[in-house]
Amino acid sequence: MIDQEPTNKKLTTELIKANIENALELEAVSKNVSTSNDKMEKQVAELIVANEVNALELIVVNKELVVRDEESDKRAEELINAYQELKETDQKLAFQKEEKEKRAAELNMVNKELAFQYEEKEKRSSELIIANKELIFQNEEKEKRAAELMIANKELAFQNEEKEKRAIELTESKKLLEETGRLGNHGGWEFDIAKNELSWSDVVYQIHEVEPDYHPSIESSFMFYVPESAPLISEAMNQVIKEGKPFDIDLQLITAKNNRIWVRVLAQAYCINGEIVKIGGMFQDITERKQSEESLVKMKKAIDTSGEVIFLTDQEGVFTYINPAFTSLYGFTSNEIIGKTTPRILHCDELNKTVYEDFWETLLKGDEVRGELINKKKDGTLINIECSSTPIFDEDNKIIGFLGIQRDITERKSAEKALNNSQQQ
User: Fold this and answer.
1) Which pLDDT does position 251 carry in this prediction?
2) What is the pLDDT of residue 2?
3) Which residue, 270, 234, 259, 260, is CA-closest to 249?
4) Which residues lie closer than 8 Å to 156 by C-beta, 6 or more apart?
5) Is 302 exposed, middle or buried (0-12, 13-18, 19+ CB in 10 A)?
């Protein structure tokens, strides 16, 4: 539309130029009228017609030019408006571009901030992962520790139950010891290491012949023992307290009433979690037993030095003891005879079996047997003996063995036989 405006102007100029040329031609024709009126009139008419036609065409063209000029103006206005709109649009676009650039810068800043935050998050995430691992490790350690504590608690509970059970057992044992102690003349004692306290049962007080208000201690208790026994009990107590080594020893002491007696002292350590906390034991008056043992020692010495054969057997007639006189007479040592039965070792075929049967029948009835027998020595020599056999009874009056005493009367028997022979002659 903009390119048509110069064309219209050019067309208008050509039409004006054509009108001028027609006017010039018309003037030239008018000058030549005189030469040819007819021809001139004809030409004038033709020119007039042509001029009219041209005028009409010019009018039409002018009208078209006017219309075109109006349209051009309108179009120009539209183009100006469009240009203004484009300019405004460009301004808007420039503003929007500035806004976009500003927004882009802001977004870039935001991106950088987000990138920084992302890095911080990554860093924090790594720290959290490490922290989580640490927490997991700590939780595992806690669970492990909890499991250990649970096991320890169960162990403590078990130990407490055992302690309570042990305490009940100890209480019952103490009661039983007190009862049996009164019957067997023995009591109990206990030493608390932490408290350094020594406690005695009533029987132990009675054995020491002290008053009920007496307060014993380890040091004072040692003073009761005779000089030969005091170092023994002191050393034994040190070992049981420090090492937990139990002891069972016989010692002599002098009571508060100046009586010299024999006592048996037993001790053992009591531990809690591997630590020795108490020492406990038994205390028994064994004076009568010691006196019996001394009597037995004297008796054994007397038997061993006796000139008569003395031996012991069980209820089946198996040798359990022989004195030296037995060996001297029969030739058997203790190792050869102990565990053997009397009939197989000593008896011979000189006597009827009924003699031995009557002998054993009388013994098994619980009666003593006295008489003369013919026995056989280790080398096969036959000897005459004078013997006595006595049953040995236990507390329930049951036979548990036999005591045999024999004397070699072979020479006497030979002398008697010789005397009888000489008298008969």
Assistant:
1) 96
2) 46
3) 234
4) none
5) exposed
